[in-house]
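Hi all, posting the design record for the shared folder.

TITLE: backbone redesign
STEP: 1 of 1
STRUCTURE INPUT:
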């Protein structure tokens, strides 16, 4: 099976495609009638109709239903890769992948399912939704709270285990809202394969595991920080699986509890769970946001840790070990040292990382590539990244990692799996499925393939599609990108407060340790200057320690509207 990704066609391209298809149809008819008139060959007329007219009319009637995908070649240090890209989304974010007997199953962020089958057709799985409590949540005041984002409620990972002929047990790690609280849950259902493809056996879900205690709504910063969920699933043995759980910002700074070090709290842990009984225990602890988890073929367990600013880690996991969060990290709290680390820049007193990325790359999932498909990577593990838009090939030597080769893919990579046929599949935040194979092993293979069924791509659910006012949209952007370090209440956190920002002199908050460039800068903050500063496009402020933030125009415009709402009303004369 071949696969890949392309960007959605623009309306202009679609119009031109329709015009060209109509012209092709007219030309085909002219040719057909001309041949029929002059040659009197009915058989030839039918052949012309089949070859030219019918395909042109089909394209005219169903634009975008199929897409030709081309394999493109890029070079790594050791060998060429062939990469194909398929746009799998019609609006809904796709958050997790799994290989089920050669079909690539995917789940949207809010729990709908589809798959790319072995014939490269996009299929839906009707009647199957992850039980996430969305309906209950939408009826609560929390759903309308501008500091709550439905996008923080997420499917986190998928794992399938064969359960007999043409049957598979599907395990899903996900968030669930229930009774005013959030949970991280592992649920199980069964899929079957028949003449109609993958289908739910009965649509029922069994709860295997629930975090203890539940995750309360926060009153500092974001109401629910699902992006620090972790949630990776790997099978450790025939009867057990491992589940990674992030702290959801319960780190002592953004919430009073330091969950990663609290033995009575499941957050910030890797949990070992029995597949038969659901009994569980802590396998290791001290994690912030364990985005990747891998049980390698040599018995080692690797974890990728999404740290604060700087400090993304690759850890070798040992049963009973403590990895230090939120006490130690190589990362920073914005521009300041992490406040709980007694030795900033060091990782003393706890299990050390085997590799760290400074600055952060937004580390994501880990896989072990197929040694048959990628023999040059036989001693490597692969790490995907979000902010870095890069795939990293990590060379392992026993318990150590000796280097990381970056392979730029230009996309935020949300999940990555190794397929049974040896290829690699990656889903991006834009809904693009990236397929990777070894170019050296596929010389002479077809350079393209056709994906069909694109009308079955998942769309936004009603809870995600609710319209936002610019103020609410801006508030959510602020608390997602800025609220960790800045307040709009006048309080100085690790960054200066941002209320009454526009019109304020640059570097004017007393007592805050600004960079030399900001201290010496002249002028006042304006929206255009703020945008250049966030994107590091203002050369006069080049030495800033502020992380680079790239916002789309609509996001920045909404952020500007929100910041305007934090301005004090002018005094009345």
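Okay, here is what came back for every position:
SEQUENCE:
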């Amino acid at each position: 099976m071949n696969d890949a990704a392309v960007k959605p066609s623009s309306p202009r391209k679609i119009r031109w495609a329709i015009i060209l298809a109509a012209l092709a149809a007219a030309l085909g008819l002219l040719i057909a009638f001309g041949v029929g008139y002059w040659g009197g060959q009915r058989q030839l007329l039918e052949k012309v109709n089949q070859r030219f007219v019918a395909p042109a009319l089909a394209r005219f009637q169903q634009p975008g239903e199929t897409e030709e995908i081309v394999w493109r070649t890029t070079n790594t240090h050791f060998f060429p890769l062939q990469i194909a890209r398929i746009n799998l989304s019609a609006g809904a974010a796709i958050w997790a992948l799994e290989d089920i007997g050669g079909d690539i199953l995917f789940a949207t962020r809010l729990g709908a399912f589809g798959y790319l089958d072995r014939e490269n057709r996009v299929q839906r799985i009707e009647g199957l939704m992850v039980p996430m409590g969305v309906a209950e949540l939408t009826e609560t005041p929390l759903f309308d709270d501008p500091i709550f984002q439905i996008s923080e409620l997420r499917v986190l990972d998928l794992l399938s285990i064969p359960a007999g002929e043409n049957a598979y047990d599907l395990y899903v790690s996900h968030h669930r809202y229930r009774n005013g609280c959030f949970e991280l849950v592992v649920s199980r259902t069964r899929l079957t394969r028949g003449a109609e493809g993958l289908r739910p056996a009965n649509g029922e879900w069994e709860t295997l595991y629930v975090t203890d205690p539940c995750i309360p709504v926060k009153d500092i910063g974001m109401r629910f920080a699902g992006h620090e969920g972790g949630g990776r699933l790997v099978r450790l043995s025939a009867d057990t699986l491992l589940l990674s759980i992030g702290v959801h910002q319960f780190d002592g700074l953004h919430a009073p509890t330091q969950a990663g070090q609290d033995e009575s709290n499941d957050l910030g842990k890797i949990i070992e769970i029995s597949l038969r009984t659901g009994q569980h225990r802590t396998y290791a602890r001290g994690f912030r946001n364990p985005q990747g988890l891998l049980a390698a073929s040599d018995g080692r367990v690797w974890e990728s840790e999404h740290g604060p600013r700087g400090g993304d880690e690759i850890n070798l996991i040992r049963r009973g070990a403590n990895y230090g969060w939120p006490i130690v990290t190589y990362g920073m709290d914005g521009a300041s040292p992490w406040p709980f680390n007694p030795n900033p820049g060091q990782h003393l007193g706890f299990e050390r990382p085997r590799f760290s990325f400074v600055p952060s790359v937004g580390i994501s999932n880990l896989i072990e590539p197929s040694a048959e498909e990628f023999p040059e990577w036989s001693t490597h593990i692969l790490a995907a990244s979000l902010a870095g838009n890069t795939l990293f090939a990590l060379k392992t030597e026993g318990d150590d990692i000796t280097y990381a080769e970056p392979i730029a893919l230009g996309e935020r990579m949300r999940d990555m799996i190794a397929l049974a046929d040896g290829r690699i599949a990656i889903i991006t935040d834009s809904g693009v499925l990236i397929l990777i194979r070894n170019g050296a092993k596929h010389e002479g293979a077809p350079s393209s393939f056709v994906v069909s069924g694109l009308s079955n791509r998942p769309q936004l659910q009603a809870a995600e599609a609710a319209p936002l006012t610019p103020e609410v949209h801006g508030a959510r952007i602020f608390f997602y990108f800025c609220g960790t370090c800045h307040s709009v209440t006048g309080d100085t956190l690790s960054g200066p407060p941002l209320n009454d920002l526009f019109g304020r002199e640059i570097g004017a908050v007393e007592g805050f340790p600004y960079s030399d460039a900001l201290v010496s800068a002249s002028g006042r903050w304006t929206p255009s200057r703020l945008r250049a500063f966030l994107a590091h496009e203002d050369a006069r402020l080049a030495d800033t320690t502020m992380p680079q933030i790239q916002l789309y125009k609509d996001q920045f415009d909404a952020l500007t509207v929100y910041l305007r709402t934090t301005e004090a009303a002018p005094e009345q004369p």
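COMMENT: The radius of gyration is 26 Å.
Let me know if anyone wants the other runs.
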